[in-house]
Amino acid sequence: MATEYLEHKLSLLPARPGCYLMKDINSKIIYVGKAKNLRNRVRSYFKSSHEGKTAKLVSEIRDFETIITSNDKEAFLLEITLIQKHQPYYNIRLKKGTGYPYIKITNERDPKMEITGQIKKDGAYYFGPYPNVYAASGTLNFLQKVYPLRRCQGHIGRPCLYYHMGQCLGACFKEVPEEKYNSQIEKIKRFLSGNVGEIKSDLNKKMLDAAKNREYERAAELRDQIQYIEATVEKQKIISNDSTPRDIFNYYVEKGWISIQIFFIRQARLMKREKRVFACVNSPEEELSTFILQFYNRRNQVLPKEILVPNNIDKDTLSEVLNVPFRTPQRGQKKALMDMAAENSKLVLQEKFRLMELDNRQTYGAQEQIFEALNLPYGHVIESFDHSHIQGTNPVSAMVVFQDGRPEKSMYRKYKIKDELENHSGADEAANTREVIYRRYSRLLKEEKNLPDLILMDGGIIELRAVMDVLHNELGIDNLPVAGMVKDNHHNTSHLIFGEDGQAVTLDPKSQGFYLLQRIQDEVHRFAITFQRKTRSKNALSSQLDNIQGVGPKTRTKLLKKYGSVKKIKEAPVDEIICLGIPQTTAQTIKITLSNIETHKKYKKM
Question: Does the reported pTM lie above 0.70?
Fold first, then answer.
């Protein structure tokens, strides 16, 4: 069953061929597929029953994206490229390249041609992938006959069999000049990049001659070689007709937003696609030009040999700045690629609009429901607090921030409760609340920063009154509303309390506002618990170190800063601990003592 989010995305799918990329809860691509009709194929995952691995895949899908192509064959080749790039977990058959080979020219003194299923960063030349392994093998055999490099192991002291057959340049018994290899490699590269007209014409002539001479086996062999070549280097729209590295930019503008698509053409095929959507402040032409300059100003961004852009872009200025030719294709394959980029831009932006509408209802609208329930004007920022401790020890507090219904994790804060032994027990919720509220909002006042629009405390009337007392009587803040998030007997979100008397405020349990309230309460609790566990772990380690002879505050600080856990200290070599400025005897004592502690723990568990 698809979520509401996915249902909206499914309704936007085009009835076009293309590829789809399924993502899990962490936005990791777990499956890549192709379809003649994206709408029907992708919807089938969520609208039909499945068994086995397909059912497992569907259960993990949380999002997807699509790339449209002009026909099924283009989608097929693009699918291979995407699988090789992303290595999705559920594409077992294709992931290792077992059925989709590349032709490789090795990077060595005496290079050779071979078929491989994987691309490595080894300086070699790669051509492919090829959907037909037999065609690739046949073409490789043909190239080895017409443009031989090295086929033997090399340096065996005598000519090999392939040399006698004219399929090896002779590295087996002599030193072949690099210039000869380079000449052959250039011919091979031209051939594999699609320049096969002259060779095909020559093969056709030889095939006809062999047939006239009744050399039918020879004629059949030549016919097969022609078919292999056609299947291997046949032109596709998503594949350029040359091997020039080029990038393609196009865009679509609507309702004050611009969607930009970048296609990366390498080795005569579409290697990668990037997309960007953002508010269009200036004219679309200015936005795209600025984007392109920023795009190539990124770290490690490699410039191509050619950049294709729409006609209304200032190509001369961009060419002068980046020292790369900018062109606008008027016809042919490059024009078709530009059109494809524009179509994908439109699809992405329209999807963005629909998802923005959904997102506004689920986030902005949900937060609005909380403010309405409290009879407050709408506010953008909610800050929520929770405390955590273990039987009064290691008390901590945590704060999470939600802005228009979305978590702003960069604004989250963690607090260690100060002076717990002198002032109060860590289990004193009211005292913890008073301390953390004072620290948070006295700092905001001091730094002249904006206050939130609502404070939500995970707790009851005691915490609620403690917050209001600090705000009103100690900090002089009178216009900051505070509410408490109350849980039921099953520790689930129940309702809000508001005001000095803690008046109960209920939300419809099926409303988006209630779901948001649950999420805020769960998130602040999770954040506090996680912080408390880390603090407890460090304190436990600190306590263990304090009991070791020779370990004082300075040594303890060095070990905590460097390792942070007993396990890591135990795994560290003595010499490494000594390098921290700790005497050898002390270092050895630390290792032995911690090992004995772990052994004792394991024995007690038995």
Answer: no
